[in-house]
Amino acid sequence: xxxxxxxxxxxxxxxxxxxxxxxxxxxxxxxxxxxxxxxxxxxxxxxxxxxxxxxxxxxxxxxxxxxxxxxxxxxxxxxxxxxxxxxxxxxxxxxxxxxxxxxxxxxxxxxxxxxxxxxxxxxxxxxxxxxxxxxxxxxxxxxxxxxxxxxxxxxxxxxxxxxxxxxxxxxxxxxxxxxxxxxxxxxxxxxxxxxxxxxxxxxxxxxxxxxxxxxxxxxxxxxxxxxxxxxxxxxxxxxxxxxxxxxxxxxxxxxxxxxxxxxxxxxxxxxxxxxxxxxxxxxxxxxxxxxxxxxxxxxxxxxxxxxxxxxxxxxxxxxxxxxxxxxxxxxxxxxxxxxxxxxxxxxxxxxxxxxxxxxxxxxxxxxxxxxxxxxxxxxxxxxxxxxxxxxxxxxxxxxxxxxxxxxxx
Length: 409
Hints:
This protein is mainly alpha-helical. The chain has four domains: about 15-80 and about 145-195, Orthogonal Bundle (Helicase, Ruva Protein, domain 3); about 85-140 and about 210-235, no CATH class; about 245-320, no CATH class; about 355-405, no CATH class. The chain has helices at about 15-20, 20-40, 45-55, 85-90, 95-110, 110-120, 125-135, 145-155, 160-175, 200-205, 220-235, 265-270, 285-290, 310-315, 320-335, 355-365, 380-390; strands at about 145, 185, 245-250, 265, 275, 290-295, 305. The strands form two sheets. A five-stranded antiparallel beta sheet has the order 4-6-7-3-5. It has a two-stranded antiparallel ribbon with strand order 1-2. Pfam families: PG_binding_1 (PF01471), SLT_2 (PF13406). This is Membrane-bound lytic murein transglycosylase B.
């Protein structure tokens, strides 16, 4: 899934490409007719649906990560993205408090639908509410883009063209099945649809009827939206009865390089290493016997957590650690009235993705597994930085910093 609101991305178009935009537009129209239509027809899409979807549609040159015909794909551009920027900014007071305040109202208004979905899927209502709030402001945020313009552009000339071609066919199938609302189908800048912001293939796979009218309407029905989010998480492995995680204090004796879903321990074993909950309470007995994972999304520069497998189910909705953490935290605020994280966020982050990618490639040359040089400080990059720091006699902070640019190049 993707957020509707995003920081501005700018496609840098060379003069040569700009001069050839008209030619590229012609190629796009030819591609629609000669390449996409046969695939859509084979998927059961009618010609009437196809023609209506692409009536008046042209390329959207403002979308990110485009590779127009005749140009070459380069590495990560100098850009920042909210999901992977400075961690503390992701948890701005306005976004957290707004999602919490309206979420409490929605918890009362839709108590029956939430309870029904929790019984059926095992997913707590507070988690469903937090996702709903993050994705579409509980259905209140305007979804501005023409879905077929977005998906058509990305399928024709993006860095992930095969993926978006599949999603474009799925969107046509959604319209062809008359599941979508009448009129132009609207989406986010990434092609996500409806109040849960499902990609079209996920609409087909996970949208369900929550209000009993025989139709899965994630655009206008709150009950269907709630049921569909719960169904998605359930089908992706949500473990009933388990929490998502706990904020903790990590003593200096426990290295931040122990982070990651591939380095799990029983939660009681983490406790034996000296990790404690910030609340002062012991870990729940039912959780203590089960596996947990260290999460330090800003390294030593921010809050730390012991999370459960359910945290990584939340990441199936959006691959960002910060997204999953936001959902868990806001959900807890909605139900338990908890406050801000105990630990503050240091002023880390804010690097360009191209800077982080250079660091990642340098670490790869030294034999570290950073999870790919994509310019995003995921857990593999964070702990690789920590291991590099420890190997060079430095305290491990486990997060990319500006001062590392000269040493890791």
